[in-house]
Amino acid sequence: MLDYEALTKAVGDLDEEDVMSKLEAFVAENPSHEEAQKAVAACQSGMAIVGDLFEQGEYFVGDLIFAGELLTNAIEILKPVLGQVSSEKIGTIVLGTVAGDLHDIGKNIFRSMAEAAGFEVHDIGIDQPAEAFVNKVKEVNPEIVGMSGVLTLALESMKDTVDAFKAAGIRDNIKVIIGGNPVTKEACEQIGADAFTTNAAEGVKICQSWVQ
Ligand code: B12
Predict the structure, then answer these.
(1) CATH code of the domain containing 160
(2) DSSP 93-127
(3) What is the largest distance, in Å, between two alpha-carbon atoms of the chain?
(4) Which residue from 23, 74, 151, 171 could staple onto 166, CB 3.0 to 4.6 Å apart?
(5) Whose Cα sits closest to atom 11 in ligand 1?
């Protein structure tokens, strides 16, 4: 049995060896999807600790970089139990991290889970301006656009992107979901998105409800 709190602490401590050995033992036990999602949530809480220690001046940018690599490797171990790419296609999502923001771990987790649920995901990458989202939407005609961002400034870029959809006359053709640490109900309303979440699994459920 995985001790989720101990996993959160190990991520917060940036104890890579402990994180990897815990996750390898966990995956070897063939956990359920729900348990794997709980492990992701535990890692996410560990990253919040890293962020807090960075703000308090105990960790530095080098530690953030290390934390990013650590979590990317951790998610690689979890991928097989988070679900494989489904062969049945239930919908299309254009996904990206918005302009000014280089964080992509949360986006990548959402992509993996959405693909496992049967979505075809067009991931346009990090630091993507509004026009890049607009162009991709025009090209692949998705039902859904997912925008990711963890910096406070990402909220502004998300609003710019929704405004660009309106200006291009394509806002009514798509549902927009935003995700990442700073998104809230209020931010969602201001941005003009249809839904928000700080949990990838919940995000996938919302997207599934839109294509049913
Ligand atoms: C790792 C990290 C980095 C790494 C990122 C590596 C990478 N490849 O992503 C690096 C080193 C690059 C980095 C750089 C910086 N960072 Co940084 N970083 C973090 C840290 C510690 C973890 C982020 C993370 O991966 N979290 C874990 C993931 C799993 O969580 P998540 O993103 O929220 O994603 C989940 C959900 O939100 C959801 N989700 C996410 N996206 C989407 C999208 C959709 C559509 C859906 C449905 C769901 C969804 O699903 C995920 C799983 O459930 C955070 C701390 C924190 N509290 O987040 C700081 C943090 C975000 N960083 C911060 C800062 C200040 C910076 C720098 C400015 C530092 C510097 N001085 O250079 C730069 C900025 C670079 C830039 N322009 O973007 C601040 C931001 C402050 C602010 N309010 O804006 C934070 C909050 C740290 C802090 N407390 O001060 N960082």
Answers:
(1) 3.40.50.280
(2) EEEEEBTT----HHHHHHHHHHHHTTEEEEE--SS
(3) 52
(4) 171
(5) 65
Tell me which of 33, 47, 103 to substitute to probe ligand 1's pocket, judged by most ligand atoms within 8 Å of the beta carbon: 103
- Taking only the tens place, the pLDDT of each residue in 71-114 is 999 999 999 998 877 788 999 999 999 999 999 999 999 999 99
- Ligand 1: nearest atom to the Cα of 152: 84
Please state the pTM of the whole predicted model: 0.96
- The residue contributing the CA closest to ligand 1 atom 71 is 61
Residue 168 CA to residue 149 CA, distance in Å, equals 22
Residues 32 and 121 in one domain: no
User: 10 with 49: CB under 8 angstroms?
Assistant: no
